[in-house]
């Protein structure tokens, strides 16, 4: 789907485990394999607690995976230390969900924007005013905002400042952790338009975490669906309606139609996500899937390519993308945990 010559960063078999009480282990990310390409946006969606933010924190080296590699420019980020790691950080930046908590409340916008450049010796103190105004202009904010403090700005303006700070070092990859979820819908649109414009101008790769499938499909080039730390499906951005995995289909059915078909009936997910501390063997979605079979409870499905840029980890589909013969609905319901154990 994408030119491999533009491959920027690749996560290979990345797993992150955290120790829990009683000698148990919480697996936040389980054998994750994803790729980031220059000038392309990879959207990562899933329910709260599925491991999206944990994975992206591993990509920016705010944490270290338990297993696996994260290859950037031919080097494994998980093994970098000291000055080499510090120099690499300027090429991968992050925009957090709450920009206000990532700003020092006593620093003016000028200092917030120029601090990364000063840290890497890119500018002198005498250049801060001019540089800050250029960065503000790049995110469609007035130059005199450089004298303000973060608390005197709206949420949308603060998020633009966070984006301006992220692009200050001219990174090759920007990770955006639910950067629009706290904003009004109208403001979300302008922020997404800004991000898309900057991406085209600077050929930046973007990793975008979101809950809103309708939002992410409007601009992402590729979408990865995560469930309990596992990537269950990868879909081309503009082809969400072709999703195959039962979990992805459930997500689609639980929201307004991405194509704005308001006659489509919304089917909410009534069941709760299982505890990641007590994961059954086999498919991670088996306890909520109406089509669960004996094989699903025994073997964890691997991702299969079923179309151009389309991969799915589900025993219900063969390599051609065709759904294998399913069991009768009555038997499927009998095998589903939440039909056997209603809430």
Alpha-beta content class: alpha/beta
What integer is the average pLDDT?
87
Largest sheet: 8 strands, mixed
Query: Beta-strand percentage?
Result: 15-25%
The termini sit apart by 43 Å
Q: What's the shape?
A: globular
Q: What is the count of DSSP helices, taking H or I runs of 4+ residues?
A: 11
Strand order of the largest sheet: 6-7-8-3-9-10-12-11
Reading the helices and strands in chain order gives: EEEHEEHEHHHEHEHEEHHEEHH
Number of DSSP strand runs: 12
Helix content: 25-40%
Task: Evaluate the radius of gyration.
Answer: 22 Å
**Residue ranges: pLDDT <50 for 5 or more in a row?**
326-343
User: What is the chains' assembly state?
Assistant: single chain
Structure description:
The chain has 343 residues and is of the alpha/beta class. Helix content is 28%, strand content 22%. The protein is built from eleven helices and twelve strands. It has helices at residues 52-59, 82-89, 109-119, 128-138, 155-167, 185-202, 213-216, 246-253, 294-298, 329-335, 337-340, and strands at residues 7-19, 25-37, 41-45, 67-72, 75-76, 92-95, 173-177, 205-210, 222-227, 230-236, 304-307, 310-312. The strands form two sheets. An eight-stranded mixed beta sheet has the order 6-7-8-3-9-10-12-11, with helices on both faces. A four-stranded antiparallel beta sheet has the order 2-1-4-5, covered by helices on one side. Helix 5 packs parallel to helix 6. The longest helix has 18 residues, at 185-202. Mean pLDDT is 87; it is low at 326-343.
